[in-house]
């Protein structure tokens, strides 16, 4: 009879648990370090407190900060082409053609997106303090298209099937390619939504504040939420990886201890 202490199932189960525990600990450590670095970044709202700090800073400049506020257009906002009474400050309209191509190796039709057309429109906008209906202070967001972050919201998507006649079908079969659908999509950064910008903050003239891509190479990021919600998501992620580390570590230890106990018990009774 094989020794249960060294049964392959023991090695596979316990080893896999310890391996996953190590992986999750690495992810937890990376996320915890990321959270610590984020906490070191000063966080502000567009108010008089921020204006006083900028006035007292060297060269009227803060090299890397987070500013949270509500999106407000400077002048007339952009109206959605598809959704009534929907307005934004950045608009991206994307049109894809869906085609089918005959794959001679697979002996089947393969779908692909081709002929992508994208149009982007922007208007100047600022961040204003949440809860302030009338405010003389705001932070203008400069060069938003250079920012990273998934800050646009999909407001419209439609897929229209291509109309295909008999002649089109015959030509498609002969050429090995044919259109099947047209997909259109509209994404907006909407007026009034919360936005947190990470970048360099400068004071121009007396009360004009502007956040822009940092000159020291750090990332210019726009986050579609308030600062506290953004930080809470990162902390929840760190907590999840920590919990999985403990769970798989304890499971692996329990399995290993159980197999060892069973093996020693069998040896004593034999």
Give the biggest sheet.
5 strands, mixed, barrel
Order of helices and strands: HEHEEEEEEEHEEEEH
Task: Please give the order of strands in the largest beta sheet.
Answer: 2-6-7-11-10
Unreliable residue stretches: none
Question: What does the overall shape look like?
Answer: flat
| Beta-strand residue percentage | 35-45%
Radius of gyration: 28 Å
Could you tell me the mean pLDDT?
A: 84
- Summing up helix and strand content along with how strands pair, one would put the structural category as alpha+beta
Distance between the termini: 11 Å
So how many helices?
A: 4
Question: Roughly how much helix do the residues carry, as a percent range?
Answer: 25-40%
- According to DSSP, the number of beta strands is 12
Chain-wise SSE layout:
Elements: H1 8-39, E1 43-44, H2 48-56, E2 61-73, E3 78-79, E4 87-103, E5 108-122, E6 125-128, E7 139-141, E8 153-161, H3 166-175, E9 177-190, E10 194-204, E11 208-212, E12 221-223, H4 227-269
Parallel strand pairs: 1-2, 7-11
Antiparallel strand pairs: 2-6, 2-10, 3-4, 4-5, 4-9, 6-7, 8-9, 10-11, 10-12
Helix pairs in contact: 1-4
Your description of this structure?
- The protein is α+β, with helices and mostly antiparallel strands and 270 residues long.
- The protein contains 4 helices and 12 strands.
- It has a 5-stranded mixed barrel. Strands 3, 4, 5, 8 and 9 form a 5-stranded antiparallel beta sheet that branches.
- Strand 10 and strand 11 form a beta hairpin.
- Helix 1 (8-39) packs antiparallel against helix 4.
């Amino acid at each position: 009879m094989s020794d249960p202490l060294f049964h392959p199932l023991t090695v596979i189960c316990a080893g896999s648990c310890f391996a996953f525990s190590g992986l999750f600990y690495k992810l937890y450590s990376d996320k915890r370090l990321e959270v610590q670095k984020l906490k070191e970044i000063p966080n502000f709202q567009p108010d008089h407190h921020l204006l006083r700090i900028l006035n007292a800073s060297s060269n009227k400049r803060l090299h890397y900060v987070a500013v949270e506020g509500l999106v407000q257009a400077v002048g007339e906002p952009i109206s959605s082409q598809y959704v009534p009474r929907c307005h934004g400050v950045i608009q991206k309209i994307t049109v894809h053609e869906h085609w089918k191509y005959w794959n001679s190796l697979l002996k089947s039709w393969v779908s692909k997106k081709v002929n992508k057309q994208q149009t982007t429109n922007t208007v100047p906008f600022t961040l204003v303090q949440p809860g302030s209906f009338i405010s003389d202070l705001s932070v203008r967001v400069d060069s938003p298209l250079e920012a990273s972050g998934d800050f646009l919201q999909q407001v419209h998507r439609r897929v229209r099937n291509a109309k295909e006649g008999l002649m089109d079908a015959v030509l498609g079969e002969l050429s090995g390619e044919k259109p099947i659908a047209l997909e259109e999509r509209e994404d907006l950064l909407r007026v009034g939504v919360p936005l947190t910008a990470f970048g360099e903050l400068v004071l121009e003239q007396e009360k004009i504040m502007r956040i822009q891509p940092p000159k020291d190479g750090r990332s210019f990021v726009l986050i579609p939420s308030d600062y506290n919600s953004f930080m809470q998501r990162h902390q929840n992620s760190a907590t999840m990886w920590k919990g999985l580390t403990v769970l798989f570590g304890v499971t692996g230890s329990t399995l290993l201890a159980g197999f060892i106990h069973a093996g020693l018990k069998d040896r004593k009774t034999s």
